[in-house]
Design goal:
There is one protein chain. This protein is α/β, with parallel strands linked by helices and about 230 residues long. It has two domains: about 110 residues, Rossmann fold; about 110 residues, Arc Repressor Mutant, subunit A (Orthogonal Bundle). Helices cover about 40% and strands about 20% of the residues. The strands form three sheets. The protein has a five-stranded parallel β-sheet with strand order 2-1-3-4-5, with helices on both faces. It has a four-stranded antiparallel β-sheet with strand order 6-7-8-9, with helices on one face. Strand 1, helix 1 and strand 2 form a beta-alpha-beta unit. Helix 2 runs parallel beside helix 3, helix 4 packs parallel to helix 9 and helix 7 crosses helix 8. The chain starts with a strand and ends with a strand. About 5% of the residues have low confidence.
C-alpha cells in the first residue's frame, strides 16, 4: 500500500510541484490550502507524513503543527520560504521532525521525505519485543517496540524523538557528535544544520527528564556531543 502524504500550502504552484514529484515516486497525496483545513484533514485522514508550510491563511503552520502534535505522532516536514534560523528552530520546538527551505530541488525533497518515512510510529507499535529493554531510574525503554515509559506511563514521543532515544540508549555511555547524530538518526542524505539535534534533544528531555537543568538520562559532553547515561 502506498504511503499517504498530506500537503498543506496556500500556493497552488508549490502544491502542484509537490504532488507531481511525490506521485511520480508512488506516493498518494491529499492537499489543503489553509491552516484550518490542513489541521482538519490531518486529524481525519491520519496521513503517513505531512508537508506543512509555515505561512498559511486562517492558521499559521506553527499552530497547525502544535495542534497536530497533541494528537498524532505523524512525521511533519515544515516548508518555509525563509532562511531565518528562528523559523526553523520554532518549527522544531512545535514538534516538527524536519524542515526544508523553498526553493528546494526534487532530489532534496524526496531525500527528506524518504528519510522521515523510514519507519512509522505504527510500525514501532506493532513490533515484537525480544527482551531488549533498558531501565534507568523511572524510565523504561523497549528498544525493539520503540515504547518508552516513565513511572509506568507510556510517553507520547514523535518519530524523530523515538529514533534519537533508541539510537543513544542502545549504545549507552558512547558519546556521539551532532554531526554523527544527523547522519545516523536523520539519514545520510539529510541536509540540515546542527541546531536541529540540539532542539530535538531539548524536546526529548522535556518528556523524559525530571529536571532538564540536571538531566539524568541524556547527558551533554560539552564541546563533543551527547550520550545516554549508563550508570
Amino acid at each position: 500500500m502506498s504511503k499517504k502524504i498530506l500537503i498543506v500550502d496556500d500556493e497552488k504552484n508549490i502544491v502542484d510541484i509537490l504532488r507531481y514529484n511525490l506521485q511520480k515516486e508512488g506516493f498518494e497525496t491529499i492537499e489543503a490550502y489553509d491552516g484550518e483545513e490542513g489541521l482538519k484533514m490531518a486529524l481525519e485522514c491520519k496521513p503517513d507524513l505531512i508537508l506543512l508550510d509555515i505561512m498559511l491563511p486562517k492558521m499559521d503552520g506553527f499552530d497547525v503543527c502544535r495542534k497536530i502534535r497533541q494528537a498524532l505522532s505523524t512525521p511533519i516536514l515544515m516548508l518555509t520560504a525563509k532562511e531565518e534560523e528562528v523559523d526553523k528552530v520554532l518549527g522544531l520546538e512545535m514538534g516538527a521532525d524536519d524542515y526544508i527551505t523553498k526553493p528546494f530541488s526534487p532530489r532534496e525533497l524526496m531525500a527528506r521525505v524518504k528519510a522521515n518515512l523510514r519507519r512509522t510510529a505504527s510500525e514501532f507499535a506493532s513490533g515484537t519485543s525480544s527482551g531488549n529493554i533498558i531501565k534507568r531510574g523511572s524510565l523504561t525503554i523497549d528498544v525493539d517496540r520503540y515504547e518508552v515509559k516513565k513511572d509506568g506511563k507510556v510517553l507520547e514521543l514523535t518519530l524523530r524523538e523515538l529514533e534519537l532515544l533508541k539510537f543513544l540508549a542502545s549504545q549507552p555511555g558512547q558519546i556521539f557528535s551532532r554531526e554523527v547524530l544527523l547522519e545516523k538518526v536523520w539519514g545520510y542524505e539529510y541536509y540540515g544544520d546542527l541546531r536541529t539535534v540540539d532542539v530535538t534533544i531539548s524536546r526529548l528531555r522535556e518528556k523524559i527528564e525530571n529536571d532538564q537543568g540536571n538531566p539524568e538520562y541524556i547527558i551533554t559532553k560539552r564541546g563533543v556531543g551527547y550520550y545516554f547515561n549508563n550508570k
